[in-house]
# Entry
Amino acid sequence: MKLLRLLILFIVFQVSAQQGGMWIPSMLEGKNEKEMQSLGMKMTAADIYSINNSSLKDAVIHFNGGCTSELISSRALLLTNHHCGYGAIQSHSSVDHDYLKDGFWAMTDAEELPNPGMVATLIVRIDDITNKAFEGISDSMEEQEKLAKISQNLEKIQKEVVKESWQDVFVKSIYHGNQYLLYVTEVFKDIRLVGAPPSSVGKFGSDTDNWMWPRHTGDFSLFRIYASKDNKPATYSKDNVPYIPKHFLPISLDGIAEGDFTMVFGFPGRTNEYLPAIAVDQLANKLNPARIEIRDTALKIVDSYMRKDQQIKIQYASKYASIANHWKKWIGESQGIQKSGAVNIKKKLESDFNKLVAEKGLQNQYGTLLPDFNRLYKEIEDVSLANDYWSEVVNRNIELLSATVMIYQLEQTYEKKGTQAFEDAREKLSKRLEGFYKNYNATVDKAVFERLIEIYANNIPRAYLSKSLSNADFKKLADDIYKKSKLTNFEGASSLLSGTPSEFIRKINKDKGYQLGKELTADFYANINPKFVKTSEQIATVQKVYMKALLELFPDERIFPDANSTLRITYGKVSGYQPKDAVYYNPVSYLDGIMEKYIPNDYEFDVPQKLIELNKTKDFGSYGIDGKMPVCFIGTNHTTGGNSGSPAIDAHGNLIGLNFDRVWEGTMSDLYYDPAISRNIMVDVRYVLFIVDKYAGATRLIEEMKLVHPKKKN
Ligand code: ARG
Ligand code: GLU
# Structure
């Protein structure tokens, strides 16, 4: 009986966790290494991570905190996504030379463009410091007391760490506070733009194709790390020289085939794989739908104006893309949760968990976990919803109200911290608002306001509804605010922000738009935020113990730590999938598919003339195969946001692709990874080389790379 239950549990875990996982590169030896080798990997764990010898990890770089990038030459040529380099490419663009539209290629080192503020972080080593972090902790302590003691320990550990003077250090917990890792890093600060394809290549398919397969985006850009003459991190100087890395990735020209081993090495941002069923249900069926409705409404309105007016299109393009990105992801995620039956699978796991806890006589330690989760998630539901309504409607999608939130912070700064702090904050805010109003159109915003404020008032849980919005006439409210508020343009906002602090406060509080924004924001900080934060902390405490229990009760399982923006390895194989009945998606896309999607002059599906020519003449150099040019491919690697730009690596450690997205049907993998349909999307590195070489003629870059033929036996 006991054995049978254990077996059932084992199977549930095997099925849900089989493949997938984002593993710590310094902890691969044993289980992961064996599994990777059984999938076809020809390397050892030490080839991937070593502190004594150079290893793959020396080529994988955290790109500006949010994306991943990899070194691909002995002169520190750095490859990442086009959408990761987008801000930098945009910042160097003007009407005369629009690098977003036309692309950019530095034909000499001297033409490479510096990017002030940009950083690239190399991981020197990872130490497990769990024992030291927990020194002086006892079971009898309250959670708050434990956390205080731990943070005291961490401070000391970081102070005493052995490292070079130019290196940095930080600590992160994994397994929800059950284990602590210390990272020694080198943060490079002179990162220069080397090359980018035109958006019609680098962003081909744009929002319509985003999160979708089949895909045909050449989502890459090239940078270079510069260092001081002694090869150390340094801020920009014209005397800096290309960094000489310990390792860079050779590039395979032999391509991929279905079933080939792949791994993706990078910095995934955040996953939540160990949520209880009730939380997954709440997210997929309550929170996501609310956020989707808000963004759906806003996007439709903004789109209708963007289509009519070129100026509005430029102003809103980037905002639209970022709002649409998560909107589309959430839709896919909720559908995927539904279709995969994730909630019921989790429920089954939980009832088995409880049985095992009972059998092992561990009720005192672990018997209350699931009831606690259920109680706390019920308790947090309304305030989570309110938190989302405020964040989405007030703090983001109604832009005038989002400006009032910033101004509210300024008013608070004066009230709480006095004149000097106020002056500093005002200067910063004025600069920020200048940028804000450059891309602001009051007509668009008013239309968004009218619809969203109604959705807000009708749907935010009643306990959190602000006074002015109960029984309001929304049309009238919109007319009134957008006629009378000075916050509809930069001059008006500047005049409100000017003068002595008390003049500012008098003027701003008379403004109709500010009055509403201030009421909603003050209510948020008084009623919504404190309760949300407090309950979230209680949930985190339960999650920590639940995680500990899972690790203890299933010591032989593949339980990986949730992503937390630290360096991870995920592995799998090149694989198509079946998105729906009777349809199978092949894992590789080709240039032919770009021509199938081509719509002349369309802002998403236009194709550059030169690419059309190259396709006609089949001039693919050594990058094509059998008269076709591969563009993207998919695999079973478990990735998430932050893995953008991550290298896809073959069985021997060579670069085969560049991660940039996931397939829509599988985006629930942040909560529940389903090996049948969760796939990551990569640009085939041969397409990158083809664009650099044949399209852009930047052959000097090809020459510094190391191109190899791992599949050809000499
Ligand atoms: N979906 C990818 C990611 O989450 C790509 C986003 C950029 N592309 C876009 N069309 N918005 O970041
Ligand atoms: N596009 C995502 C990023 O910017 C990666 C896709 C994903 O979420 O897996 O990191």
